[in-house]
Amino acid sequence: MDKTVNQKAWFLILPVLILVAFSAVVPLMTVVNYSIQDTFGNNQFFWVGLEWFEDILSSERMWNALGRQLSYSAIILMIEVPLGIYVALHMPKKKGFSASICLVLMSLPLLIPWNVVGTIWQIFGRVDIGLLGYTLEKLGISYNYTQNFYAAWFTLIIMDVWHWTSLVALLAYAGLQSIPDAYYQAAKIDQASRWNVFRYIELPKMQGVLMIAILLRFMDSFMIYTEPFVVTGGGPGNATTFLSIDLVKMALGQFDLGPAAAFSIMYFLVILLISWVFYTVMTTLDKRDGV
Amino acid sequence: MAKITLDNLAHSYLPNPASEDDYALKELNHDWTDGEAYALLGASGCGKSTLLNIISGLLQPSQGRILFNDKDVTQAPTTERNIAQVFQFPVVYDTMTVHDNLAFPLRNRGDSADYIRQRVQQIATMIGMESELNRKARGLTADAKQKISLGRGMVREDVNALLFDEPLTVIDPHMKWELRTQLKSLHHEFGHTMIYVTHDQTEALTFADKVVVMYDGRVVQIGTPQQLFETPEHTFVGYFIGSPGMNVLPAEISGTTARIGDHTLELTTGYGPLTGKTEIGIRPEFVTLTSGPGLEIRIKRVEDVGRHKIVRAELQGRAFNIIAGEGEEISADMTRVRFETKAINVYQNDWRVTGDAA
C-alpha cells in the first residue's frame, strides 16, 4: 500500500523557527560575527580570526574577574546551602497556620525585583542614612562599602544570602515534606541519633532537590549583574567587578565590541560546560541507585 | 524482655475528647505476660496500631500509664524503651547496604564490631539474604525491603518487646509462611514478648499463644484460639473468627429456652431475665441440615471448598451459614436445621452472658 506523502505539516513549525531565529540564533551569530572581526567604525569590518579570544585568554583583567566570580559563587553556596537546610529543618513540619506564615515570609525576598533588592541594600548599608551602615559606624566598626574592600564583599554576600537562602530552604523543605512519617518512627525504634536521622534519612531524601538548588544558585550567582551594579558598581576599584559587570564595561563602556564578543562567547561556554557537568553528575547519581 | 502493663490506658486523636466515641482506643487494663507471643486481631481502624504505637512510645496516650516490668515508662521516649517494631510498609535506609541496614540498631548503641558482624550474619541467614549483604538497599523489591525491616527488628537480642504491625502484608504467600515460622522459632529460642498485629485470623491463630481481639477501640476478648472459637465473648469475635463466622440470631431468652420466631430451642443452662438486645450465636460447624423437625431455612447455594461444604442459606431473612461434611448428601427436602445445644452461646447487647448452672 502506498503511503501518501504530505510534508506540508512542516510549515506549521515555521512560526517557532522564526521566533527562535530572531530571539536566539541571530543575536548569537551577531556576537560570533563581532568576535572574529575588528572594526574602525563606518560599518567596516576586518577579519582577525581568533585574535580577540587569545587577547581575552591572556588578559589578566578577565582572569581576575573570573577569580572574583568563582570566589563569590563559592562563598554564597557555602553559606546558603547549609543555612537553607538548617532553616528547612526548623520550619513547622505539619501543615497549618504557622507553616503557611513561614512559607509566605520565606517567599517574600524571592518576589522582589533584583534592582530593588540592590537599592534596598544600597540604602540599608549607607553610613549616613542607612540603618545597617549607621549602626555599625556608631558601634565603632569601620564600615563603608564604597571604600572598603571587605565591607563591599560583606554587603554583597549578605544581600545575596538574604535574597536567595529562601529558595534553598523552600526546595529543601519540599524534599523533607516528602519523607513518610514511618521513616522517623523506624529511626526512633532503631535508637538513631539526631545526626544519623539527618545523615541517613533526611539528606538522602533531599539529595535531588538540593542538586537543583545548588545548580540554580550557582548559575544565578555566576551571572549576577544587577545587584552589585546597583550597590557597588563594581567598586571599590575593581573589588566587586564580576564577569558580567566587566563584560558590560568592556562592551558598552569602552565599546570594545570584538573582545567583548569573544568574552561573551567564552562566558556562555563556561556556563554551558558547568550545566553539563551538573546534569551528568545528577543523572549518574540517579543511575547508581539500582546497582 | 519484659512484662508490659497497661494501666487505665486510653487514647484520643482529638485534643478535647468529649464522649467515648472520640476515643480511638478505649480505656484498657491489661498485662502482657513476659515472654508470650500475642496476636492483636481486629478489623482495620479498630485501634490496633494505635495501641502498638503507644507501647513503643511513638504516641503519647491521652490517659493512663504503661509499665515495663512495673517501671513507669509512660513519659519515656521511644529510644529509651528498647523496643523493636516492624511496620506494615518497609522502611529501609536507602543509601546504606543491606549489611549496614541490619547493623544500624547495633551501631547506634555502640556494640563491638565483632559482635555486630556475627549477629548480622546470623540475621541475614534467618531472612535468607546472606548473598545480598553488600548490596545497596535502594532498588530492592518490596518484600526484600520488608525482610530487611524484619531483620532490623530482630537484630537486638535484649529488646523489651518485639512489635509487628501487619509486617507480612507486602510479602508473597510462600515467604510469608516461612517468615512466620522463623518468627515463631525465634520466639521459642529467645522468649521475647511479642505482639503481632494483623487482620488475618489464620496469621493470628498460627502465630500466637494468645489472641487479643479488638473491636471499635476496645479489647473484646483475650484468649487461646480454642477459647475464641468455642466461647466468643462478643458477637464480633464470633463473626470475625471462623470461616464463615458465627451465626447470630435475635432470640427471646427465658429460663432455659430461647425463642426464635415461633420456634423454641432448649439451652444447657438457665438465664435470669435479660434486657436489651438478646441474641444467640451458633457456629456453622455446630449446625446440621435435616429433613426432620427444626428451624426452617431457605438454601441459597452450596459452596464446596474441598474439605467440607459451606451451605449459604437464609433464616428469617438473615444470612445463615452451615458447614456440612464433604461426604454428606444435601437433598432438596432438607429445609430445616438443628443446633448442637452445647455450642449455643447467649448474647446480651453483643456481650456473652453465662447462665446459672440450673
Describe the structure.
The complex is a heterodimer of chains A (about 290) and B (about 350). Helices cover about 70% and strands about 0% of the residues of chain A. Chain A has helices spanning about 15-35, 50-55, 60-90, 95-110, 115-125, 130-140, 150-175, 180-190, 195-220, 225-230, 245-255, 255-290, and strands spanning about 35-40, 45. A two-stranded antiparallel ribbon of chain A has the order 1-2. In chain A, helix 11 packs antiparallel against helix 12. Chain A is globular and about 75 Å long. The model of chain A has no long low-confidence stretch (mean pLDDT about 85). The two termini of chain B are about 45 Å apart. In chain B, a hairpin with a 2-residue loop joins strand 21 (about 345-350) and strand 22. Chain B has nine helices and 22 strands. Helices cover about 25% and strands about 35% of the residues of chain B. Chain B has two domains: about 5-240, 3-Layer(aba) Sandwich (Rossmann fold); about 245-355, no CATH class. At the A-B interface, helix 8 and helix 9 of A face strand 6, helix 3 and helix 5 of B.
The interface involving the most residues is between: A-B, 18 and 29 residues
CATH topology of the largest domain in chain B: Rossmann fold
Number of helices of chain B: 9
And the CATH topology of the largest domain in chain A?
A: MetI-like fold
Our estimate of the beta-strand percent of chain A is: under 5%
Give helix % range of chain A: over 70%
Largest sheet: spatial strand order of chain A: 1-2
Q: Point out poorly predicted stretches of chain A.
A: none
**Number of strand segments of chain B:** 22
The class by helix and strand makeup of chain B works out as: alpha+beta
Sheet with the most strands of chain B? 6 strands, mixed
The number of distinct helices of chain A, counting runs of at least 4 residues, comes to 12
Shape of chain A: globular
Name of the CATH first level of the largest domain in chain B: Alpha Beta
Mean pLDDT, all residues of chain A: 87
Instruction: State the CATH superfamily name of the largest domain in chain B.
Output: P-loop containing nucleotide triphosphate hydrolases
CATH superfamily of the largest domain in chain A: MetI-like
